[in-house]
Design brief:
alpha+beta; 2 domains; nine-stranded mixed sheet; 13 strands; about 30% strand; binds (R)-mevalonate
Length: about 325
């Protein structure tokens, strides 16, 4: 009998959240905070010692269903606060998929793991893009529906959307994340945007502009244009605020960080969670965020994607 341990990194979205759900461009970077899953076969399926419940553990249930997985016992450990906008559910899904695939002796195909994690997110959120799932699975830097000439990883389609996912170089730039401390699940934020878009042409135009901003940002990242990228991040925050997914705590941290940054914005689904600033003065940004009640940390990018090890008992 052996345990399988798999881990995957969290991420932050540099540009393009929400619009990417509708097939617009986006870019994300994996960060040095990981989610770890330890699984073993068990006659009494459980999660951290509590009975597994299909309706509660929606992400896990989706992955178990897709993999005809035998009953397992799962222990989790996370360095990524849940609802922080840093991709904890995608990292969990990616790590869990890799772990159960290894447990069943199946090939560890990155695309298949990313699709498992995407479908888990889709089921739990009501809709989703494969952005977070791809960043957690592949690691490094990931672009969705970027300009031609990228290094392609995989393509995923669902309903009327197709997301072409490619790899991008991790920029030599310094990012500081500020966590508001407010847990904000992704599903309700995604649903809020869906409703707004369904009834307003203006919301659809804002989503288009977020996509255009992300496309320009991918170009700025490619040529290490920190000033250009910073300007686009700040502009993106304004667009996301108009869309209704920011909140006063996020705005407070973004405003505080802006004075010492090239640009700053909320990251992830918003409504709480985290913001991110691009800066060459991380100390000043951390101080400004902490003074406004946020929890700052300097992000290390270039993190490896999903990885698996087996522990013999
Ligand atoms: C959440 O990290 C990013 C969103 O765009 C949702 C998604 O892409 O699934 C808000």
């Amino acid at each position: 009998m052996s345990d399988i341990v798999a881990s995957a990194p969290g991420k932050f979205i540099v540009l393009g959240e929400h619009a990417v759900v509708y097939g617009k461009p986006a870019v994300a970077l994996a960060v040095d905070r990981r989610f770890t899953c330890r699984v073993r076969r068990s006659s009494r399926p459980n999660v951290n010692g509590r009975p597994f419940e299909r309706g509660v553990h929606l992400h896990l249930d989706t992955i178990i269903g897709r993999n005809s997985c035998p009953p397992v016992s799962l222990e989790t450990e996370s360095e990524i606060p849940s609802g922080s906008g840093l991709g904890s559910s995608a990292a969990m899904s990616s790590a869990f998929s890799a772990a159960v695939r290894a447990l069943c002796g199946r090939e560890l195909d990155e695309r298949e793991i990313a699709v498992d994690a995407f479908e888990a997110e889709y089921a739990a959120q009501g809709r989703a893009s494969p952005m977070d799932a791809s960043a957690s699975t592949h690691g490094g830097g990931v672009v969705v529906n970027g300009p031609r000439g990228d290094r392609p990883l995989w393509s995923i389609s669902k309903n009327s959307n197709t997301w072409d996912v490619s790899e991008t170089d991790v920029p030599e730039m310094t990012f500081v994340v500020g966590y508001t401390g407010i847990k904000a699940p992704t599903g309700p934020q995604v649903e809020k945007v869906r409703k707004y878009r369904a009834k307003s042409r203006f919301a659809a135009e804002i989503l288009d502009e977020i996509g255009q901003t992300a496309l320009e940002g991918i170009g700025a990242l490619d040529c290490n244009d920190v000033e250009g990228l910073g300007r686009l991040m700040t502009h993106d925050h304004k667009l996301l605020s108009i869309l209704g997914v920011s909140c006063k705590e996020l705005n407070k941290l973004v405003n505080a960080a802006e004075r010492h940054s090239y640009g700053a914005k909320l990251t992830g689904s918003g409504g709480g969670g985290s913001m991110v600033a691009l800066t060459d003065d991380p100390e000043a940004v951390c101080k400004a965020i902490a003074l406004r009640g946020g929890q700052p940390f300097v992000v290390r990018t270039g993190e490896e994607g999903v990885r698996v090890s087996e522990i013999l008992q």
